[in-house]
Amino acid sequence: MLIDHFPVLGLRLRTPRLELRFPAPDELSELADLAVEGIHDPDVMPFGNPWTELPPDQLARRVIQRHWTTLSELRPDSWALNLAVFLDGAPVGVQEVEADDFAIQRQVHSESWLGRRYQGQGIGTEMRAAMLHLAFAGLGAEEAVSVGYVHNHASLRVSRKLGYAENGIGRGVSRGKLAVEQRFRLTRETWEQHRSIEVTIEGHEPCLPLLGAGKD
């Protein structure tokens, strides 16, 4: 079976409301359609790469190709898990967790997006909490980092709510103009102090060697 060669396909994260996992082909198509409906206010660009401004057909294809690309390029020293987020069985967004040289650095980065009609309901916080549980409890990470433009208030609120500490300011580019970035860092100790959302993990142990998280 394919899962025997690619065990990440069996990875499941569950919170009180959500399930995070790799989507089936039809579910991936639904995610692409959701992205076309809109992810953010048109007046605010939260991403360095303004992929949400692509024409609808290209935007949908980009969501699908991003999923396939991260999956195909996954290897122990550089990986990204592009997990679909499901609410009541329907895809509502994507929570990505990625790392380079995880076996050495024990650090993860994260990115995410959520369909606009599902925003403002605490889903963004819950799906990031699931990702952090996978990173710290499942993979043995020592820290998680995040970066958000200072004008992306929703993302910054999620980071602060989950215990991330401000870790400096950076300079990025958004729509061809300078955009100030707020950097965040969350240690394992602080995560343990702030964790308040119940998360369960299924199918992660067979994935550990593929993610550079196996025992020495």
Q: How would you sum up this structure, described in words?
A:
This protein is α+β, with helices and mostly antiparallel strands. It has a single domain (about 1-210), classed as 3-Layer(aba) Sandwich (Aminopeptidase), CATH 3.40.630. Helix content is about 30%, strand content about 30%. It is built from seven helices and nine strands; from the N terminus they run H-E-E-H-H-E-E-H-E-H-E-H-E-E-H-E. A nine-stranded mixed sheet has the order 7-8-6-5-4-3-2-1-9, sandwiched between helices. Strand 7 and strand 8 (about 175-185) form a beta hairpin. Helix 2 (about 25-35) packs across helix 3. The longest helix is centred in the N-terminal third of the chain and has 17 residues, at about 55-70. Pfam families: Acetyltransf_3. It comes from Jiangella ureilytica. This is N-acetyltransferase. InterPro entries: Acyl_CoA_acyltransferase, GNAT_dom, Ribosomal_N-acetyltransferase.
